[in-house]
Amino acid sequence: MTSRSSVEPVPADGIGAFDHECDVLVVGFGCAGAAAAYEAARAGADVLVLERASGPGGSSAQSGGELYLGGGTEVQKACGFDDDPDNMYAYLVKALGPNADTAKIRLYCDGSVGHFEWFRECGVTFNPSFYDQPTWMPMSEDGLMWLGENSWPYNTVARPVPRGHRPAASGFGGAVLMEKLSAAATAAGAVTHVDTVASNLVLDADGRVAGLVARKYGERVTYRARRAVVLTTGGFVDNEEMLADHAPVLLGHGKVSDGLDDGSGIRMAAAIGAATRRMGVVEIALTALPAMVCRGMLVDGMGRRFLNEDVYPGHWSVHAVRDQPGPYWTIIDEEGYESVPEADRWGVLPKHAAETLAELEESLGMPPGALEATVETYNRHAANGEDPYFHKDPKWLRPLRPPFAAIDPGAGFFGGTGGPASGASGFTLGGLHTTADGEVLNNSGDPVPGLYAAGRAASGMHGEGYVSGTSLGDGTFFGRRAGRAAAALEKENA
Question: Which part of the chain is the FAD-dependent oxidoreductase 2 FAD-binding domain (predicted)?
Fold first, then answer.
């Protein structure tokens, strides 16, 4: 999808009578929009939510539903884990870096237990059970999972504690999460206009954001926001031109989105002088199964390992696609494959198998001897329970023995939209530069009057790293703050 329609602002004095008016106008009804609308309405503001699709949900509803929460939640305690905000902070600064937003992370960690309770107040339930296996997402209803906290080097800077909180749902939980959040926002008093596509911000004579222009079934509709507009329109992975300009690493790969993350909110804000931040930062999911990768090894097209395979799988995914020559292969032996629980195989079968590594190299098109050298080195150290190159946890170390198999990530198992069967899908993390309360800043570092943003339309906690649950967590946490701040404004646009 591309978007070359004009996003230039429209002067308020050129509109005349607005079709609709409210105190706070939230644009986008994913997790960040639901959180902002809920808090603004609960604070007493008259809230309208615009959603371009035919109902709430967005990319949030199609996600796994993981929420990165910690600091000592009831689920953590029930599963026997002791956590605190400082320990959580130490891990997230390392995992979301380099160049993570430490001020936002600090607020997030200090408020994480309260944020967990907020989800429960909204009707989201979490089972007090723990899934103790490496995976992208458990096909179970367990409420807690590891997200790389127990792997090197993260276990050297923070005490390993699992923080992946999952709504009570088998498999993908995003739809359950959004069902509860959207219902809570509606119950609080927020009114939703669906099938309504925002196109241009409206500015008063003094440059303050006063509303926006949208289209509904091809007809122009105008909205006046007496206090503020909150942009929660998602990222820009579905806009090929924006990807080419800012994040070309995702070109040609699959897209983790609902197909509507076209960067429209970012473009509208940038057209009135809003600053953007870290637009080249992305998250990538290589379609390799962590349960298999841990029991074997992940290698590049030259047959070389490049990271400890037990880290959060997004780390080896980004490292592979950004830095390693493809294609990528999971190398595993028969014993390792058979030891993977059936539920964690996701129906994936080896694409290549051979009795010798030389035969496997030939079928994979690798340089002769390359994979043999990698496995020989790995086996020699694994026999002693060591991995001096990448520090994989000893519990996953053992020599690999014939027969061997290579599993091709290009087969794919993630959904997402667009792109060839590249074996990788991703989304963008950069966006509008905001304060912790969601105020959108201009290129001088000053707030744009009347404009707020949260979720993937904004640049949140992330530096150049990512962990599952920090999009839904960041979007809802800072969406709540944006909603409260917008509602607290005087009715300066009245």
Answer: 23-471
Q: 130 and 76 in contact (C-beta within 8 Å)?
A: no
Helices 174-188 and 470-488, packing angle to 10 deg: 10
Instruction: Cite the beta strand spans of 338-480 per DSSP E.
Output: 352-354, 404-407, 424-428, 431-432, 439-441, 447-453
Helices (H), 324-368: 334-339, 357-364
* Dist. CA 334–CA 438, nearest whole Å: 51
* pLDDT for residue 491: 57
Contact 247, 51 (CB under 8 A): no
As a whole number of angstroms, the distance between CA 68 and CA 71 comes to 10
> pLDDT tens for residues 284-301?
999 899 999 999 999 999
Q: Is the pLDDT of residue 419 over 90?
A: no
Contact (Cβ atoms closer than 8 angstroms) between residue 331 and residue 299 = yes
CA pair distance 64, 264, nearest whole angstrom = 24
**What does the pLDDT read at residue 413?**
47
Positive or negative, the Cα torsion across 181, 186, 189, 195? positive
Say how far apart CA 70 and CA 93 lie, in whole Å: 14
Tell me which H or E stretch contains 199.
Answer: strand 196-203
Distance CA 353, CA 312 (A): 27
pLDDT digits (tens, 9 = 90+) for 360-411: 999 999 999 999 999 999 999 999 999 999 999 999 999 999 999 999 876 5
DSSP labels for 232-269? ----STT-HHHHHHH-GGGTTSEE-S-S----HHHHHH
In terms of DSSP bridges, do strands 196-203 and 282-286 run parallel, antiparallel, or are they unpaired? unpaired
What are the CA-CA distances from residue 123 to residues 92, 177, 425 (Å)?
27, 9, 31
Two structure tokens written together for 45 = 């503001």
Give the three-state DSSP class for 192: strand
Q: Check whether 493 has a pLDDT greater than 50.
A: no
Least confident of 56-65, 163-172, 484-493: 484-493
Report the share of the chain in percent with pLDDT over 70: 96
Q: State the alpha helices, DSSP H only, in 140-217.
A: 174-188
Q: How far is CA 134 from the centre of its chain?
A: 18
* Cα–Cα distance, 283 to 269 (Å, whole number): 23
Mean model confidence pLDDT for the chain: 94
DSSP annotation of 368 reads: T
Q: What are phi and psi of 135, to 5 degrees?
A: -165, 160
Task: Give me the pLDDT at residue 107, please.
Answer: 98
pTM of the model: 0.95
Strand pairing of 404-407 and 329-333? antiparallel
**Can you tell me the distance from the alpha carbon of 338 to that of 292, in angstroms, rounded to the nearest whole number?**
10
